[in-house]
Amino acid sequence: MEALIASSDLKGNPMTNSKSNRATPKHKTRTSKSDQLKGLLNKPGGMTVEALSTKLGWQTHTTRAALTRLK
Q1: Quick check: 40 and 47 in contact, CB under 8 A?
Q2: Is the pTM of this model over 0.70?
Q3: What dihedral do alpha carbons 38, 43, 49, 55 form, nearest 10°?
Q4: 42: which of 6, 20, 28, 50 is 20 to 30 A away, CA to CA?
């Protein structure tokens, strides 16, 4: 049985300690689903559970559970 060589990648290319020339990924500020839920509830006229579920991509029972945790 052959041992894996730690100094090469899976394609057999030697690995070095140099930095990648790829651009550093920019971190986008993500809004949590609960923050999105609160924002939707602040709209004039409110929203139904079905409309909230559609907007958030949740099932209705998940939306109802999230509503019970809001203060």
Answers
A1: yes
A2: no
A3: -80
A4: 28
